[in-house]
Amino acid sequence: MWQKRFEGRVWKYGDHVNTDVIFPGKYTYTLARGPELAAHALEDLDPEFARSVRPGDIIVAGVNWGCGSSREQAVTCLVEAGVQVIVAASFSRIYYRNAVNNGLLPIVCPAAVRAVEKGERIVVDLEQHEIVCRKGRFAFAPLSPALREILEAGGLIPMLRARLAGG
Amino acid sequence: MTAFTFAQKAIARAAGLPQVDIGTVVEVEPDRALSHDNSAAIMRIFADTGAKRVRYPERLAITLDHAAPPPTTRHAQNHAEIRRFVREQGIRHFFEIGRGICHQVLSEEALVLPGQLILGADSHTPHFGWMGAFGAGVGRSEMAAIWATGRLWLRVPETLSIELRGSLPEGVTAKDLALHILGRFGADGGTYLSVEFAGEGVASLDVAQRMTLANMMAEFGVKNAYLPPDEKVFHWLAVRYARRTGVGPEEALAQVQKDALYPDAAAPVVARHVVVLDELEPLVACPHRPDHVLPLSAVSGREVHQAFIGTCTNGRLEDLAAAAAVLRRTDGSTRHITVPLIVIPASRTVLQEAVAAGYVQTFLEAGAVLGTPGCGPCMGNHFGIPAPGEVVISTANRNYRGRMGTRESEVYLSSPAVVAASAVTGRITHPAELEAG
C-alpha cells in the first residue's frame, strides 16, 4: 500500500554527507542486507543515530546528501533502521536512484531544510506536496510519474518481479 | 531543436530512438554492464527478480578487484559465488583477482568503445568518458535489473561544458586539473549533469591523463563525463581491440571509430566554464572532502605517516613513471622513503610494463611495498589501512572521513609525483623541493 503521509522525528545533518560516513566502505562486501546494516547506519557521521533511531524517524539534510560511492547499503541501512523519508536540499544522483529503487522517499525541499530543527516532529504530505513543520508549510515538486510507479511498487525489484511474473 | 549534446546522442543511440529531449526519462539498453566484487550481492537481488538467466551474458563484464585477493572468509565466499555464477550463466568477460581494476581492465580490453553506453555498479563509471563513451554509475538493484532485462531507465541529463585552453605546465597533471575543477565549482558542481569537455586543450592530454580526468568527475557529482575522442584514443583502443578479437589493424580501427559521437556546436548547455591549463599549479585535496582543495604550497610541510600510489584514478603506467622519476636521482641512485609507500598498479598489464621499464625496481630499491593490482586500500578493505591519528597522502579519488577504513585518520589527495616526494620526506612535499640531484 502506497503511504501518502509520513510523520516523524527529525535527525538533522549538514551538506555533502557522503556514503562513506553513511555506511563505511569496509563493510560493503561483507554486509549486503538485513537488520545488521542498521547497526552501522551513519556510523562515521553520528554514532548516536544507530543507538537511538526509531522507526518512522525522518532525516533532514543539506545539499548533495549521499555523494560518493554507489553502495546501495547507504540507502538500505536507513531503510532497515525504519527511515522512510529523507528531506534534503539536494541529493547526489546515484543516491537518489538507489533511494527510489529501494522504496526510500527522497524529497528535495531546500526551504524546509532551512526551517526544520533537530528533534522536532514534521509531516511529509505526498498529496499536498508539502512539508509541515513548526515554522510553517513548505511546498516541494511532485515526483515524476516514472519514479512514483517504482515507489508505489515498493521499489525496483518488486516492480520487476511483478512485471516478469506477468510475462 | 536540431543541435544535440553528446549525452542526448549517446542516450538516443542506446534507446534506439532518433532523438531524445533533455529531462525526459527513457529506457536504454547498455552496450556493457560492469560490476565487481559486488556481483555477489547483485546475484542475490537478481534471484529476487524471479529471472533465471541473464538476458545478455555477453554484455556483462565482471572484475574481482575491490577486495582481491580476499582478506576474509566472507570476501572469499563472495568470490567463490561469483565464479560459480559466471560459469552457470556463460559470462565470458570475467576477470580474476590480480587482473586489475574494472575501469582500467575494461579500457585495456577495449570492451567499451567510443559512443557506446556503459552502466556500472560502481560510482567511477564516468571513467569511460575518457574515450567519448557514456559511462554512468548505478546501484546494485539497478544492475540486477539490467542482468534480468538488459534495460534500465535513464533521465537525459543537462550538459555542462568545460572548455580546456592551452596545455598543462611541466609538473602539473590531470589530477591537478580534476582537483582544480572540484575546488573551483564544488563537489556538487556537476550533479546530475553530463560534463562535456571541449577545446584545444583536450588534444594536449594523453590517454592516461584523460582517464584520470574523466574518472575523478565522479567526485564532481556528474552523471557522465565526455572528452571528444581523437586519433590518440582510436589508435590506443584499436591496438587493444585487435589483440582481444584477432581482427586486423584496419578492421580494428574501423570498429573503434564507428560509433564515435560528437556534440553539435550549438547544443544546449546549462553553463560554459573555461579552464586555462597553462595557469594551473599542483594542488592537494585536504581532509575530509575532495573539493577541499588548496595549492600544494599551502599545505607543504605537513607531516604524513603513509603514502599510497594507485587506484582507478592514478594507478597507470604514466603515474608510476612520474613517481619513479621522483625516486630516481639523475646519477642513477635511488632516494629512500622515510614513511611506508604502498604502490598498487591499476592492472597486471601496468605492472608488467612497469617491471619492463624499471619502475618496479626503483620502487623496491626505495623501500616501497608493491601490492596486487586492484583497488587496494582506497575504500578501506585491506592493504594499507591507517592507524587512528595517522595521516595518509594518496593518489586516490576520495578522502572522506573513514574512507580508508579508520575514522580517526586523515587523507590528502594529490598527484603521484607529490605522493612519491612526500614518502621521501615524511611531509607533504613538492618534488622540486627534494635535494638537488
What is the element string of chain A, with H for helices and E for strands?
EHHEHEHEHEEEHH
The figure for the number of domains of chain A is: 1
The CATH homologous superfamily of the largest domain in chain B is termed Aconitase, domain 3
Question: Helix tally of chain B?
Answer: 15
Radius of gyration of chain B: 21 Å
Work out the strand percent of chain B: 15-25%
Major sheet characteristics of chain A: 7 strands, mixed
Task: List how many beta strands of chain B DSSP finds.
Answer: 18
| Spatial sequence of strands, sheet with the most strands of chain B | 4-3-2-5-6
Q: Can you tell me the CATH superfamily of chain A?
A: Aconitase, domain 4
Short description:
The complex is a heterodimer of chains A (167) and B (437). With 167 residues, chain A is an alpha/beta fold.
Task: Please provide a written account of the structure.
The complex is a heterodimer of chains A (167) and B (437). Chain A has 167 residues and is an alpha/beta fold. Chain A has one domain (5-165): Aconitase, domain 4, CATH 3.20.19.10. Helices cover 31% and strands 20% of the residues of chain A. Chain A has seven helices and seven strands; from the N terminus they run βααβαβαβαβββαα. By secondary structure, chain B is an alpha/beta fold. Chain B has two domains: 6-276, Aconitase, domain 3, CATH 3.30.499; 284-430, Aconitase, domain 3 (2-Layer Sandwich), CATH 3.30.499. Helices cover 33% and strands 16% of the residues of chain B. Chain B is built from 15 helices and 18 strands. Chain B has a five-stranded parallel beta sheet with strand order 4-3-2-5-6, with helices on both faces. Chain B is globular. At the A-B interface, helix 4 and helix 7 of A face helix 2, helix 3 and helix 5 of B.
